[in-house]
Structures are given as C-alpha cells and as structure tokens.
C-alpha cells in the first residue's frame, strides 16, 4: 500500500497596516501552519510633508513597493476609531482608503479590524495599552527590541490578529473588488 504524502502547509504572507496621516505603521508576517515569522515591521514617516495629497501619494507609493517586494496574500488593516475632530477623521479615512486601494489594485483582499478587537486578540483585553500590546507581541513572536514608535507594533498586532481570526472570520480574504463583482453581477451598471 502506498502511503499518501504528508500535506505541505502553504505559506501565507499577511501585510498588516496601522493607518495614519503623519506616521503609518506596516508589518509583514509570514504564516506557515501554526508558525509565524516577522519579516519586517516599521513605519512610513510622513511628518516632513505638509500637503495632505503628497502624504497620500507617498502612502500609495510605499504600499506598492511593499506589495512588490513581499507579495502578500492578504492585507489586514485597523479600522479608524471615532474621534471628536472631524477633519482628522476625514484625513485618517483617506489614508486608510489609499492603503486599501493600493492592495485592491493588485488584487490583494483585505479585512478591517476594530482597535479593540486587535487588542483583545493579542492581549486578551480590548482596553489594553499600546505598551501592553507591544510587550505581548515581543513575547508571542519572540522578538528582541521593539520599535520606539507604537505604529509599527500596532501594524504587527493587526497582522497577527488577522492570523488568529482567520478561522473564525467568514469574511476574511473575500473583500476584493473582483470577488465583489463576481458575487454581485446585478450591481454592475452597463452604459
């Protein structure tokens, strides 16, 4: 009798994003089975630009570079929290939208996670501080020194949250325009 070969666990690359208009965090996480490995996590520093449109272009360009370099299978992005400053919320929403557009332009599906969901997933406490999230990430992923800016560790937390939620999130990996159009042909307007 011939024994079947063991299943080869596919590798998945997750791009995690913590959107921001002055500093945007990003992380690249590789998942193979239950093992995770951090390839990179850092920030896109936009503080030197005063023009919001230039910031958005820089976000798009850097996202395209990351996608080209790492070829992520999925993107996880933190949903904006609701603040009292409407102008700040609009700018943050634009930054998030540009990051999503960059992913969708390369057919990379994305999922949004609320900040509390990310914190709950990493620390067990939806009200955990950024320091607590960063410290827990260092322990879980066996990382040495964490970056000084929490935006990078927040992006890593979003990516890891996505990995943890994948089995329980029926919408994970399905939010691409291509999938949407395939699933909703009646919504296509022909001129």
Low-confidence stretches: 1-8, 167-176
Quote the average pLDDT: 85
What string, H for helix and E for strand, traces the elements in order?
Answer: EEEHEHEHHHH
Largest sheet: 5 strands, mixed
Number of domains: 1
Helix content: 40-55%
Based on the coordinates given, report the CATH architecture: 2-Layer Sandwich
Question: Helix segment count?
Answer: 6
Overall form: globular
What is the CATH C level class, in words? Alpha Beta
CATH topology (level 3) name: Nucleotidyltransferase, domain 5
Enzyme class: hydrolase
EC number: 3.1.21.10
Protein name: Crossover junction endodeoxyribonuclease RuvC
Catalytic activity: Endonucleolytic cleavage at a junction such as a reciprocal single-stranded crossover between two homologous DNA duplexes (Holliday junction)
How would you characterize the overall build of this protein?
The chain is of the alpha/beta class and 191 residues long. The chain has a single domain (11-183), classed as Nucleotidyltransferase, domain 5, CATH 3.30.420. It contains 6 helices and 5 strands; from the N terminus they run βββαβαβαααα. It has helices at 52-70, 86-104, 115-123, 130-140, 150-165, 177-183, and strands at 11-18, 23-32, 35-45, 74-78, 110-113. The protein has a 5-stranded mixed beta sheet with strand order 3-2-1-4-5, sandwiched between helices. α3 crosses α5 (150-165) and α4 crosses α5 (150-165). The longest helix is centred in the N-terminal third of the chain and has 19 residues, at 52-70. Mean pLDDT is 85; it is low at 1-8 and 167-176.
């Amino acid at each position: 009798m011939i024994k079947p070969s063991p299943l080869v666990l596919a590798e998945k690359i997750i791009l995690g994003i913590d959107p921001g208009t002055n500093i945007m965090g990003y992380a690249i996480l590789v998942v193979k089975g239950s093992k995770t490995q951090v390839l990179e996590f850092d920030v896109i520093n936009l503080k030197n630009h005063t023009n919001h449109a230039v910031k958005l272009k820089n976000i798009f360009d850097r996202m395209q570079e990351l996608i080209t370099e790492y070829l992520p299978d999925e993107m996880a992005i933190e949903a904006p929290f609701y603040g009292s400053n409407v102008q700040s919320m609009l700018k943050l929403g634009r930054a998030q939208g540009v990051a999503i557009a960059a992913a969708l332009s390369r057919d990379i599906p994305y999922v949004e996670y609320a900040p509390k969901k990310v914190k709950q997933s990493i620390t067990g406490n939806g009200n955990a501080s950024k320091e607590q999230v960063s410290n827990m990430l260092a322990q879980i992923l066996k990382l040495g020194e964490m970056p000084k800016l929490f935006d990078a560790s927040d992006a890593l937390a979003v990516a890891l949250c996505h990995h943890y939620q994948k089995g329980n999130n029926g919408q994970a990996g399905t939010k691409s325009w291509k999938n949407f159009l395939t699933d909703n042909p009646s919504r296509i307007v022909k001129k």
